Amino acid sequence: MSTNAEVAETFREIADVLDVLGEKFKPEAYRRAARSIESLTEDLRAVAARKELRTIPGVGEAIGEKIGELLTTGHLEYYERLKKEVPPGILDLLKVPGLGPKTARRFWLELGVEGPAELASAIDTGRLAGVKGFGPKKIEQIRGALDAAKGRPSGRLAIEHAFPIAQRLLRGLRESGTAKEVEIAGSFRRCRETVGDLDILATSSEPERVFDTFSGLPEVGSVQLRGGTKETVLLTNGLQVDLRVVEPEEFGAALVYFTGSKDHNVHLRTIARDRGLKINEYGVFRGEERIGGRTEADVYATLQLAWIPPELREDRGEIESAAKGPLPPLVEPRDLLQELHVHLPPKAGPKEVDRLIAEARARRLRYVGCVVASSADGGAYTAPAPVRERLRAAAGRGLSVGLAIEVGPAGPPPNPGGPAYDYAIVRPTSGAPDPPRTAAMAPLRVGLVAHVGNGPSARRWIDWARSSGAAIEVGPGPDRLDSSGARVAREAGVPLVVPTGLGLAEDDPTAPIALGFARRAGAGPDAVRNSGRAENVSRGGTPARSG
Predict the structure, then answer these.
(1) CA 243 → CA 51, 106, 183, 203, 419, distances in Å?
(2) Pairing of strands 230-235, 220-227
(3) Residue 537: its pLDDT value, please?
(4) CA 304 to CA 275: how far, in whole Å?
(5) Is the pLDDT of residue 50 over 50?
(6) Are 338 and 398 spatial neighbours (Cβ–Cβ below 8 Å)?
(7) How far apart are CA 122 and CA 119, in angstroms?
(8) 24 to each of 27, 80, 82, how far by Cα in Å?
(9) Closest CA relative to residue 46, chosen from 63, 67, 74, 30
(10) How confident is the model at residue 11 (pLDDT cuts 50, 70, 90)?
(11) Which end of the chain has the smaller Cβ count within 10 Å, N or C?
(12) What H or E segment, with its residue span, contains residue 242?
């Protein structure tokens, strides 16, 4: 987890504890600061080094000082003192799905419940019976949540781990035929790096049939709530999912509302109010008349705004831009006509190469940069001769041969390449020092810098990629740039490379999430080297030949 995410998570936890303590206004101040920090386009340390923490929305003097303490010491004395004001078990209660800080406060003050074990005991002994707001059904839901919490992932879940789960849930609903339109909303749709839960929207005239289908899916562990148009379930891994079934004429408004972000929605409500309108999850209204809501474009149009892609909805200027006209296009799957970083096993033979070519042609990719797994041999990196020869023989069929070179603490190997390769992919290892001198990579041309994380050294590698004329890879995981890092690279003029998924399993999340991160960074096709534009392709290796 990056520094920004860690600080944001700490501030969210502070907000929860303040809620438990009954504070009225401070919790939202810390949550707003957390949202702003997560949306930053660079590492907090860099902002702090410039003494510009207070330029972050929601960060004043007091919160700025706390950020500085976290960055300097790794802990926050204020938070440590705050946690001592509530029983330790209350913090564990906050991890139980469906139990918010206000409910935890009620359990603590009204029932003397100070943790999950005490809550389970209160249920078993009937102490919750008759308590206002906790009927028999609700009590059983809490019991199920307590059981699920034992295996629930702590904190937020990395989006690459949530992705296959979300896709299976979508397929289950769509293939059942019980719902007409089905989409995932929330931070997942905005392609944030982590998700706290999943929100799914569907349209149907028979919500109960949709709920029955959903609760019967293999991933669903228990139903926590069902009523009217909403069902809340806990998956077998403890992740909470909210399914809402809405009317078709409400779908666009609901999708905008539940996609968020909160700050984006607040801004939209302000615009609506200033124009004498009201906007909510049911539509856009003038008085009692609904004047928009069937589609998202319809919702934005009634506010005199162009449609805004979900990945940009963070209230970072996208609404002001949409008020002036259509936003610049973001990179789409159809734009990715090259693959610059597909690995071939060292022992691959003609069949593996031919299979890769066939898949590339089926997907209408114009160019494939195939990277061999190399090893040091006599001071130079080489690939096994059979692989190299087969790739070279296939080069005229749309393949180019790349060489992956790892740069560790000792720097790159001597004589890193040779005439057998068209370009190099540089991969920093953990503990790698500053990037090497460009001359150290001769005679190979560096086409791509891959596996760059989001730590303090990321900016140095971004600058090195720019000076080397190289692109930089974006994608999920600790060793690739996330959307914040991708934005820094884009603003520095460094082209991105977005994996296409060539050679990967069908449900592998790397390609769709990498695309989402690039879009979240505001990247259009011209900012992506493998987008198919001739000026980008020519710098990434040898352009493919047609045919």
Answers:
(1) 44, 27, 10, 11, 57
(2) antiparallel
(3) 39
(4) 10
(5) yes
(6) no
(7) 5
(8) 7, 20, 15
(9) 67
(10) very high
(11) C
(12) strand 240-246
Q: How far apart are CA 391 and CA 386, in angstroms?
A: 9
pLDDT score recorded for residue 406: 77
Could you tell me the two tokens for 44?
A: 């907090």
Model confidence at 385, pLDDT cuts 50, 70, 90, reads low
Q: Is the pLDDT of residue 47 over 50?
A: yes
pLDDT at 384: 56
Give the integer Cα–Cα distance in Å for 325 and 433: 45
Calpha distance 455→502 (Å, rounded): 28
Task: Compute the mean pLDDT over every residue in the chain, rounded to the nearest whole number.
Answer: 85
- Say if residue 261 is preceded by a cis peptide, omega within 30 of 0: yes
Name the token pair of 202: 């569907």
Which residue in 154, 500, 194 sits closest to 356, CA to CA?
Answer: 500
Query: What is the spatial distance between Cα 34 and Cα 39, in angstroms, rounded to a whole number?
Result: 9
Task: State the pLDDT at residue 544.
Answer: 35
pLDDT at 82 (0 to 100): 92
Rounded Cα distance between 372 and 401, Å, is: 8
Nearest to 141 by CA among 243, 223, 237, 199: 223
- pTM value is 0.81
How far apart CA 61 and CA 59 sit, in angstroms, is: 7
Tell me the pLDDT tens digit for each residue of 502-515: 988 888 899 999 99
User: What is the DSSP secondary-structure string of 375-405?
Assistant: EEETTEEE--HHHHHHHHHHGGGTEEEEEEE
- Name 198's bridge partners: 241
Which one is predicted more confidently, 42 or 411? 42
Q: Is the CB of residue 64 less than 8 Å from the CB of residue 53?
A: yes
User: How far is residue 210's CA from residue 231's CA, in Å, rounded to a whole number?
Assistant: 10
Domains of the chain, first to last: 3-149 (1.10.150.110), 157-246 (3.30.460.10), 249-322 (3.30.210.10), 333-537 (3.20.20.140)
d(CA 347, CA 503): 16
Length of the chain: 547
